[in-house]
């Protein structure tokens, strides 16, 4: 059995090596020709596996029978084409959701520090209440931050209670966080969900954060709003036309990162393990490795807080101990200027440094810091006294 795995998927040797011959390729180099003698394929979001690619590969005799993507989103894959060719398919729902929530929190707390406001004083609108949005809503609500959610498909399935329209969020929220998949057809398309009209309607002072899919926002309209009035703030992790993103929009975003919101080691290995388990099921084999077998100890397992910190300061310090979003902003700026936009964008992703999740950190609270304990716990940190 021959298994082709994206070169940026961690833990592949441990998971897939015992199952067959392992081949690694950069994700953007995986095409129909690369699948010629491949039985199983494991990819990430930068590999596009559309009907044309699959039809060509299968017409040329590819023995492909399993495809797994180590990602939450699946808009880069055509499941109908896979089913038509009898190819089993698996994704990794929720694998990096905690990492994305960490990204959102550290980004918002960075803005709060720069702009001199408190997170609890803001109303947050969450567009897309799935694995990421649902976790973000739960954490923020536990922290006492007022949240509204918009998710029309869930509202239809579950009832409208607890859900608002997107226009209501735009009218009433200080922060708008997008965590939607890219859907181009059907009752609830998300392509340019934030179009020119809606971007123009954002109130001055609004923070727009997109960690869903780049095509859900009209980048040209957002660039025009930022370059013109310049009265809103953008935090962008996802972009139209990745990796050749708009350099002007990159420069206008307060925080600009190269599609790495979910790039914690924990999230990546969780995704690898979910696809590994799915491949084992497809082969009728037991999954002999557990996730704990793949995760190394965190580099900073414990920190101590004493008195003198307000809740925002304490959480900001804890988050930056495990992950500082400013590093990724600076990296994208540096590498895209050094190598050109597309190559610089991909270089940041391919050589991403070690990053762990907030839940791997235990915060020991001194007598003068115990009052911030509930806030830290609500945000996802572990605490001890």
UniProtKB/TrEMBL annotation:
Compartment(s) of residence: Cytoplasm
Pfam families to which the protein is assigned, alphabetical: 2-Hacid_dh, 2-Hacid_dh_C, DUF3410
Keyword Oxidoreductase appears in the UniProt entry: yes
Catalytic residues in the record: 213, 242, 259
Domain Erythronate-4-phosphate dehydrogenase dimerisation: 294-366
CDD domains: ErythrP_dh
Pathway: Cofactor biosynthesis; pyridoxine 5'-phosphate biosynthesis; pyridoxine 5'-phosphate from D-erythrose 4-phosphate: step 2/5
Main location per the UniProt record: cytoplasm
Swiss-Prot/TrEMBL GO biological process terms: pyridoxine biosynthetic process
UniProt EC number: 1.1.1.290
HAMAP family: PdxB
Family assignment from sequence similarity: Belongs to the D-isomer specific 2-hydroxyacid dehydrogenase family. PdxB subfamily.
Cited function: Catalyzes the oxidation of erythronate-4-phosphate to 3-hydroxy-2-oxo-4-phosphonooxybutanoate.
Subunit architecture: Homodimer.
Protein name: Erythronate-4-phosphate dehydrogenase
Lineage, broadest ranks: Bacteria, Pseudomonadati, Pseudomonadota, Gammaproteobacteria, Oceanospirillales
Gene behind this protein: pdxB
């Amino acid at each position: 059995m021959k298994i082709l795995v994206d070169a940026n998927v961690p833990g592949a040797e441990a998971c897939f090596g015992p199952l067959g011959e392992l081949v690694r390729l950069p994700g953007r180099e995986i095409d129909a020709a690369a699948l010629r003698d491949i039985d199983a394929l494991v990819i990430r979001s930068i590999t596009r596996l559309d009907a044309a690619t699959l039809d060509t590969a299968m017409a040329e005799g590819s023995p492909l029978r399993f495809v797994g993507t180590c990602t939450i989103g699946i808009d880069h894959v055509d499941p109908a084409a896979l089913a038509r060719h009898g190819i089993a398919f698996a994704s990794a729902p929720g694998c990096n959701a905690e990492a994305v929530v960490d990204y959102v929190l550290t980004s918002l707390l960075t803005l709060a520090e720069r702009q001199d406001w408190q997170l609890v004083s803001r109303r947050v609108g969450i567009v897309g209440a799935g694995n990421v949005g649902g976790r973000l809503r739960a954490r923020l609500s536990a922290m006492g931050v007022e949240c509204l959610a918009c998710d029309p498909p869930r509202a239809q399935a579950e009832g409208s209670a607890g859900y608002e329209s997107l226009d209501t969020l735009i009218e009433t929220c200080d922060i708008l966080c997008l965590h939607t998949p890219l859907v181009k057809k059907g009752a609830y398309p998300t392509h340019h969900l934030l179009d020119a009209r809606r971007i123009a309607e954002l109130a001055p002072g609004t923070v727009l954060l997109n960690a869903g899919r780049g095509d859900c926002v009209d980048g040209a309209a957002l660039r025009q709003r930022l370059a013109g009035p310049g009265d809103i703030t953008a935090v962008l992790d996802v972009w139209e036309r990745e990796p050749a993103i708009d350099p002007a929009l990159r420069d206008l975003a307060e925080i600009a990162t190269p599609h790495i919101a979910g790039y914690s080691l924990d999230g990546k290995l969780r995704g690898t393990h979910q696809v590994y388990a799915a491949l084992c099921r497809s082969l009728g084999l037991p999954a002999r490795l557990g996730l704990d077998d793949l995760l190394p100890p965190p580099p900073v397992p414990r920190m101590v807080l004493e008195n003198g910190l307000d809740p925002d300061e304490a959480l900001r310090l804890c988050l930056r101990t495990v992950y500082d979003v400013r590093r990724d902003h600076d990296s994208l700026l540096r590498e895209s200027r050094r190598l050109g936009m597309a190559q610089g964008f991909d270089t940041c992703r391919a050589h991403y440094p070690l990053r762990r999740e907030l839940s791997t950190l235990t915060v020991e609270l001194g007598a003068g810091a115990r009052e911030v304990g509930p806030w830290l716990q609500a945000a996802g940190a572990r605490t001890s006294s």
